[in-house]
């Protein structure tokens, strides 16, 4: 089987925060919401249930580590966690901090309006704080 | 702590398929998409990471059992799995069969148009087939 290679659209729309045991943790380039994706570094996988049972368990651990860290960091009203993949088929799990009154609240973020880029300082700062929140 | 009681809106919008080890598996009353929700029978929980580690692992197992069964049954293009909860805060995980060309494809199902009720025969039939797919 071919080695894992990140989907081109995911690569374009996000940047690496850190490589965890299973997943690449990436920040979506859209400052409207603190929005992360976890991408299991396994080739040819579209659905969570296609992962081995061990990888499924590790994905659950990494999802909850990241979701919990994002909640601690942002004090979000609600964390949204979702594996959708109707457009990009490479398995990726969204972890998004949502706030009452944020763009499209309480509706979903996908397909809503146009992404707004971070400044370099903002992007660096949110990644630094994320790593602190996840490691604490 | 108070015992588990199903959220009123979830109760109104869906009907029981089966009680699994952790979750109530329920069918959303909207025939536009084969759409299930898993509701962990634990009181006072809004986020997956608030569950105990064991419950998190069981939820993962039940999610993948149901998602895999739904894929086998429907031959869906993609299964969408999501814990959103911006409106109904009781933890519930959506498991939805999506097809190219279905209503709002490839966008998300939440907040799109008005639900369409099943006939009694349709509802009975899909639940029966779901149980067969999950148990096989």
From TrEMBL, chains A, B:
UniProt name for this protein: HIT family protein
InterPro entries (alphabetical): HIT-like, HIT-like_sf, HIT_Hint
Species annotation: Ciceribacter sichuanensis
Classification via SUPFAM superfamilies: HIT-like (SSF54197)
Domain HIT, first and last residues per copy: 36-105
Pfam families: HIT
Phylogenetic classification of the source organism: Bacteria, Pseudomonadati, Pseudomonadota, Alphaproteobacteria, Hyphomicrobiales
GO MF: catalytic activity
């Amino acid at each position: 089987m071919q080695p894992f290679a990140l989907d081109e659209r995911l690569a374009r729309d996000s940047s690496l925060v850190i490589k965890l045991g299973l997943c690449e943790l990436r920040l979506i380039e859209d400052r409207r919401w603190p929005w992360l994706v976890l991408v299991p570094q396994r080739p040819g996988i579209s659905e969570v249930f296609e992962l081995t049972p061990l990888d499924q368990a590790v994905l659950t651990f990494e999802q909850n580590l990241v979701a919990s860290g994002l909640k601690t960091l942002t004090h979000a009203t609600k964390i949204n966690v979702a594996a959708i993949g109707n457009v990009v088929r490479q398995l990726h799990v969204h972890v998004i901090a949502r706030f009452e009154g944020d763009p499209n609240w309480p509706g979903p973020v996908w397909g809503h309006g146009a992404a707004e880029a971070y400044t370099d300082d903002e992007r660096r700062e949110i990644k630094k704080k994320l790593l602190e929140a996840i490691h604490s």
